[in-house]
Specification:
This protein folds into three domains: 40 residues, no CATH class; 99 residues, Macroglobulin (MG2) domain (Immunoglobulin-like), CATH 2.60.40; 122 residues, Sandwich (Immunoglobulin-like). The protein has one helix and 23 strands. The strands form five sheets. Strands 7, 9, 10, 12, 13 and 14 form a six-stranded mixed β-sheet that branches. Strands 1-2-3-4-5 form a five-stranded antiparallel β-sheet, with no helix packed on it. A hairpin with a 5-residue loop joins strand 2 and strand 3. The longest helix has 6 residues. It is elongated and about 80 Å long.
Length: 280
């Protein structure tokens, strides 16, 4: 079916292809506009009608310490929910204090792209945005509103763990002191972070049954848990600590040998310290 119409002194002809959409042509047969599968497109040489997109950027934190991991997630959406944005890339762009591209990540089927970075090293304020780069002209480009991340100096670069005694006994509570250290291995009196306490050696080493049979020795009793127990598995330093805290009777070992007390900063596992205590 076709029909003619006159608009503003010009003749137009509209044709309807079989069930696949429609095409608008001039009387001269020049293609002006078409619609296929619900998407409208202009012919080559004219302005393309693109699917509009919107990019949203989220950050795991807006206040980080120097070189701490920060996770950025960009979500690309469009107004027409029937046409999901599931192709293309996102450029994570650092706008200030300097301009650079942190990374370029492909979006997944949900229209999301994620980046975890530790490149925010210098202290100061950073402004980051996400730029959507479509794979073709089908979708329009879009930029997110910037996120602002303030980076402060690393509150501690390590910990010194000092046992009250270097030789202890089974089931005997032992006292130790944890000291937060700055970049020059000096006491960090301003430290108010949270630490995790653990003992990497608090389990038996159990070999396969065949090993004991070949050596004609008896296998040990079933492995037990809690071979090192702490009065506090986690502790948050207070300003009154001045960067150093003593855990009185803080750990008890139920296993002999060279046992380890390890202290790790809760939000950055790279910041840690440990000490070895001989238990008999």
């Amino acid at each position: 079916m076709s029909y003619f119409a006159r608009r503003q002194g010009r003749d137009w002809r509209r044709r309807r292809p079989v069930s696949s959409g429609w095409v608008l042509e001039s009387l001269e047969g020049r293609k002006l506009l078409s619609s296929v599968a619900g998407e409208t497109a202009a012919p080559v040489g004219s302005s393309q009608v693109q699917v509009p997109t919107m990019t949203v950027l989220q950050a795991s934190t807006n206040a980080a310490e120097s070189a701490q991991d920060v996770t950025l997630v960009a979500i690309v959406q469009n107004a027409n929910k029937k046409i999901p944005v599931n192709a293309g890339k996102v450029k994570f762009v650092l706008d200030s204090p300097t301009h650079s591209v942190l990374a370029q990540i492909r979006i997944n089927k949900s229209g999301e792209a994620g980046l975890t970075t530790a490149k925010l090293i210098k202290t100061g304020t950073y402004q980051i945005e996400a730029d959507y780069v479509p794979p073709s002209s089908r979708f329009a480009t879009s930029k997110s509103a910037p996120v602002i991340i303030t980076v402060s100096p690393l509150s501690a670069t390590g910990f010194r763990v000092t046992p009250e005694i270097r030789h202890g006994h089974l089931n005997e509570p032992l006292t130790f002191t944890v000291t937060a250290l700055s970049g020059r291995n000096e006491l960090d009196t301003d430290y108010t972070g949270t630490v995790d306490l653990s003992s990497p050696t608090d389990s038996w080493t159990v070999f396969p049954k065949g090993v004991y049979e070949s050596l004609a020795i008896q296998a040990p009793s079933p492995q037990t848990t809690g071979l090192a127990s702490f009065t506090n598995k986690e502790y948050t330093f207070t300003p009154a600590d001045d960067g150093s805290h003593t855990f009185v009777g803080g750990v008890t070992f139920q296993k002999g040998g060279a046992e380890v007390v390890k202290v790790t900063q809760a939000n950055d596992k790279k910041v840690h310290g440990e000490a070895t205590i001989s238990i008999s």
